[in-house]
Amino acid sequence: MEGQATPEQRWIPWMRRALQLAALAEGRTSPNPLVGAVVLDSEGCLVGEGFHARAGLPHAEPGALKQAGKAARGGTIVVTLEPCCHQGRTPPCTEAILAAGIERVVVALTDPDPRVAGGGLQRLRDAGLEVISGILASEAAYQNRAFMHRVRTGRSWGVLKWAMSLDGRTALPNGASQWISGPSARAWVHQLRARCDAVIVGGGTVRADDPLLTSRGHRSPEPLRVVLSRSLDLPLSAQLWQQAIAPTLVAHAAPEDREMETQVNNLAALQAKGVELQKLDPCEPEHLLRELARRGCNRVLWECGPGLASAALQQGCVQEITAVIAPKLLGGELARTPLGDLGLTAMDQALGLNCEPGLSLGQDLLMQGQLSPFSAPN
Amino acid sequence: MEGQATPEQRWIPWMRRALQLAALAEGRTSPNPLVGAVVLDSEGCLVGEGFHARAGLPHAEPGALKQAGKAARGGTIVVTLEPCCHQGRTPPCTEAILAAGIERVVVALTDPDPRVAGGGLQRLRDAGLEVISGILASEAAYQNRAFMHRVRTGRSWGVLKWAMSLDGRTALPNGASQWISGPSARAWVHQLRARCDAVIVGGGTVRADDPLLTSRGHRSPEPLRVVLSRSLDLPLSAQLWQQAIAPTLVAHAAPEDREMETQVNNLAALQAKGVELQKLDPCEPEHLLRELARRGCNRVLWECGPGLASAALQQGCVQEITAVIAPKLLGGELARTPLGDLGLTAMDQALGLNCEPGLSLGQDLLMQGQLSPFSAPN
Fold this sequence. Notes:
alpha/beta, ten-stranded mixed beta sheet
């Protein structure tokens, strides 16, 4: 049967195009998923394209249908995610599809959002439309892995990023760390931040590096800058408190866990600068990601030191690793490394990664991978 | 002048072939260089090929000339290194070239060996032959970098190898390190050893890992296994003492630097097993590489722990780094890392590497590079 396409295979190129359209808004749709759609007329010719650009703006389907106009009648809509059937900030897409006279709906995935969860496809089937689902389902699930993870677990999808020398150091023994990686890699990190809804550091990173943590304008608004600081022992002169550049949230422990006097002073001073404060109880990575998910963050970036990074890993708050490896040697028994203790005692407990092939960023090498599901910490 | 070749460019494809031939004996010619040669008849047709297979066996030129026979008369020999003009273990190649009636000699490099050093080319010019040199010179110098380094510096060329997790660990906090890398990477390391004349570890690696350090038959004889152990505090049951598998050399400090009693016992016990002992004064990486160069080792592989690796780096005994990076996380504040202290206090002192693009070895990634000349330790 070589060379003979199954009926479903004819939708693959159109679904690929819909995925491309969806990707145009990467990092900008939270709390919503990425969605792209194409509309074909009754002859199978492309007559409309659309994607969801930002929460509050129209979904992908109405845009594509509007572009198609009357040509949609009797046609097909190919969409990366099940059309919604509920009234949210925008009207249900199922009704727009029906109103346009579409006769066939092709989707990659059902929407895990409990307000949809198959109900959209059912509504369309009930109305007599042909519904085909599962086209490029794994590609679509990969594209929306952060959204799906948030909806399923109630926590944001965590990406842990570090830059290290080839001998695995993230600083010199004296703490100097600017810069390990080169300009291309640093520019790439700005773009990575633009694809995230929040960037998280611990108090130690604020004290040591005084980072800015913005996308340098690649994303507007800038991602939320988050400091997880149990103790609130933070320098009041840090760049992160400049709220005109980007918003900052400081997550801290309940007062009884803190040394009272300094911390109350810091709390008041930060509030005066317009920094948002959020008490977490307990003040742990897991609870931070629940809070950020509640605020609609699909994907967050951990740019923290080894202690917080290990805690985030151990609490299941890291799904993806992004390591920039610079072709240099730093050495140093006491030099900082990417991770603190993970409590492993045998090699088969090592956390495995499904790494993509290395990517060159100037002189540096980028290694990216998802933590293997079976070896993720419990 | 696009598309028009300079007269010298016509030799490039033939020199490339000669370099390919030379590479066939990689790791097996020490103390000699790699050399390949092709012979073209007076019409420019290939009539002979040869390479130097092993010290004591004929050089590349006589083999290629013998294959060419009478067709060499009036022809050209293209050879990767200047033909020798001295009687060594084999007769001078210049005389074989003259006897064959060759009219043109094309070489990549002059031989840095003080017994040759331009004398070979001069002998050929004096005899009336056309001599062209410098064709693919940098490729040829790269191929023979270990030989050239040994001849110029009196020390072997050092390759430092390690296998680490993506978070820069070479063991778990409890010392477990088997295996960080996968089977493909470990097989590749056996082949790397086959391209080296000696493999060096410190006493700590013998005590911790009891390694075999052979090429698993990829090289015959196996590379010399070397233990640099100032103290001679070594387990007498180690696999390295099995001399039927491969020869082992233990380099140790002078007796006054050692705790006498145990060490004298160990010395006698190792000698009884047939292990060769070599006193080094001082017992440092630099002096070891002088000793190994004296023994004819062009290229040696450091497979040691962080302390010895740092000392080797700081003493200029490492020219090349080979790092296998496994896609897993180990963590551990106290877990072993590739290097100990290098004494750096500012980022611009970092030792730079000219890395080749990463190579996949199964799931693992291989990063290889030479230390940049300008940032190498003094």
